[in-house]
Amino acid sequence: MDLDQWIAKVKEGQHLLEDELQLLCEYVKEILIEESNVQPVNSPVTVCGDIHGQFHDLMKLFQTGGHVPETNYIFMGDFVDRGYNSLEVFTILLLLKARYPANITLLRGNHESRQLTQVYGFYDECQRKYGNANAWRYCTDVFDYLTLSAIIDGTVLCVHGGLSPDVRTIDQIRVIDRNCEIPHEGPFCDLMWSDPEDIETWAVSPRGAGWLFGSRVTSEFNHINNLDLVCRAHQLVQEGLKYMFQDKGLVTVWSAPNYCYRCGNVASILSFNENMTSNISNLSVGYLSTLENYTPKASCWDGRAKPLKYQIRHPILSNVGQRYPIIPWFLTITHPRKANVLVATPTILHLATPGQNPSLGPLQSVDNRF
């Protein structure tokens, strides 16, 4: 395998050949099988939330946070589904894992599942791009080898979803049999599906899997396991990163900007520097432009209108067939733990040749910050 050549190929938007993808998946499985259910990771490291097939945003994530191997990464699952480029996202992450196994850690998310990927897009994408389901089978086989969690310097636990009433200690995560499809209940399921909520203990989750868990549960879990923080993904947060509970013992990180190309949310990545002992010492947040390099299938009705500006989440975007650059603006805010946070928010789009859609009426100029 020429991994460097394959990495360059995928970064240019090309697909591996089917037999190359099969070889890559088999190679990475041999690496993943050696990893623990609670994979130890040393700082410095950057933690990332859901990507959901937004490949061009993943490329900008690396531009913002640094490229592997100069920057170490933990990706907390949900690489696939919903976005248009799940195959490219998962392929490049597998290639980076194969090339730099010590510099990138891939956790399983609830969408790393055969059942969900047949519903939310990854299966259909593989069928469309390869003409058969073999690529989907190779990738979903890798899902069963992905680790369940990572622990940074023994003090920060990273997991996709959240806590489980069946897991009081980290050692109980270590003994879970992960080499299977995600079950519908139990600790494995809960780690993938649970969500924090403004409650004290436990409540039934509206998702139909996992649990809602509260501040007391989180505080007790952190105390028992000598943790400073639980870092998780799984939930869209408009601000990209959100601390929960009064003691800020849990944080949600979301790394898919303008989720599903319409939500208008900020994306974030969370970085811990090499001096971290029991506290977060550095946090950097970058907004990643979603619609750059993405051209919708529909075309303009009329190219005579003057260029106009629109919010990134304006519904007219789905009707405009232009390749439009992102015009970002920047805001500096203060993080609760006194670290500086930089947020670059592309709220404005410049559409080169917008026109008039008879069904929607004339396009309106919008320049609102949200």
Task: Chart the SSEs and their pairings.
Blueprint: H1 3-11, H2 18-32, E1 38-41, E2 45-48, H3 55-65, E3 73-75, H4 86-99, E4 104-106, H5 114-117, H6 122-130, H7 134-143, E5 149-152, E6 156-159, H8 170-174, H9 187-193, E7 195-196, E8 202-204, E9 211-213, H10 215-224, E10 229-232, E11 241-244, E12 250-253, E13 269-272, E14 308-311, E15 326-334, E16 340-351, E17 356-357, E18 361-362
Parallel strand pairs: 1-5, 2-3, 3-4, 6-10, 7-9, 10-12
Antiparallel strand pairs: 2-13, 5-6, 8-9, 11-12, 14-16, 15-16, 17-18
Helix pairs in contact: 1-4, 2-4, 2-7
Domain Serine/threonine specific protein phosphatases: 107-112
InterPro entries: Calcineurin-like_PHP (IPR004843), Metallo-depent_PP-like (IPR029052), PPA2-like (IPR047129), Ser/Thr-sp_prot-phosphatase (IPR006186)
Family: Belongs to the PPP phosphatase family.
Q: What key phrases describe this protein's structure?
A:
2 domains; Purple Acid Phosphatase, chain A, domain 2; 370 residues; globular; alpha/beta; 25% helix; 6-stranded mixed beta sheet; 4-stranded mixed beta sheet; disordered C terminus
In a few lines, what is going on in this structure?
The chain is built from 10 helices and 18 strands. With 370 residues, the protein is α/β, with parallel strands linked by helices.
